[in-house]
Hints:
The complex is a heterodimer.
Chain A: H1 2-17, H2 20-31, E1 33-35, H3 36-45, H4 53-65, E2 69-74, E3 82-87, H5 89-121
Antiparallel strand pairs in A: 1-3, 2-3
Helix pairs in contact in A: 2-5, 3-4
Chain B: H1 9-22, H2 27-44, H3 48-52, H4 55-63, H5 77-97, E1 102-106, H6 110-135, H7 140-171, E2 177-182, H8 183-204
Antiparallel strand pairs in B: 1-2
Amino acid sequence: MVTEDRATADRQTQWLRGVLDLAVLATLQSSGTSYGYALIQSLTEAGIFDLKGGTIYPLLARLEQEGLVSSEWRAGDGGPGRKYFTITTTGREVLIRSAAGWTDFSARIGLILGGALSRGGR
Amino acid sequence: MPGQHGTSLKGYTEALTTQLRLRKVPGKVIGQVIAEVESHVRETGEDPVEAFGQPGSYSAQFAGRRSPVGRGGWLTLDDVTFTMFMVGALVMLNGVLNLGEIVNVTANVVSWVAPIVIYALVVGRIDIAVADRETRTITAARRTQGTWAASWLRFLAFFATFALGMAISSRLPHEPVLVSLPGWSLVLVGLVVTAVSVWVYQRWSDRIVDPRDPQ
């Protein structure tokens, strides 16, 4: 059972690897501006668990390098300074294009897997 | 405050900085990465290793296609400026010891410069290997052993350099005389060479920039 849970978690990690950047861009689009830890919290609330700083920050750095997000350091209120991220115009365009591609792709995979499910149920 | 892995935030960021340096990540990027780790850990209270992974694997994510851990060429800025500094210091010492006299600079000077260059190259490479071993994964015991070993190696290499210089110098002829200079001018030349080495290092080394510092 533990091995099965592990296998499921590993598979979900693989799925997430291909789409986490889009999830981050979408979260930034809806929140306007956000920082690393708040993004992890938002994604966790959305059902994406076990996200670590070691995953999010390199991803944000890559998105910034590609011009999809911009960043700015702001001093905290008595706490540590935070790096705030905002989605750019290019980021919005890439998000819309890629979100459409992902929806189309997942629908096609859904059809294939849905067929397997219904056959298995018989 | 140490986390579950027994790692303090300071210990983790120091190890991560070393690993990023060894992977030739630019100083500006290193500043960003370290600031993000500090900000995240201070806000969440998480263990740095738990949140970001071991310094070796986390730093690899920022290295991209840059070459793996190494020195970045057979002769680096560190090697050149260190050699310049040591040669300058040696010239200055020679000048101070012969302040009121005329000093004959002979071709034998090579016997002192060569060991210094060898020292810079050898010790630099030992330092890289030890630093990588100490910081790739956080292990307190290994760090202590590694630091002691590196200190002893440096100490031995330093004396070996002078022993080598003296051995070569005693076997080479002290002729021809290249130039005869008063002791005070050697002090001046030594001062200029050491000052230039410090300036070159300050000017050209890729310094870490903290993005939270006001520009």
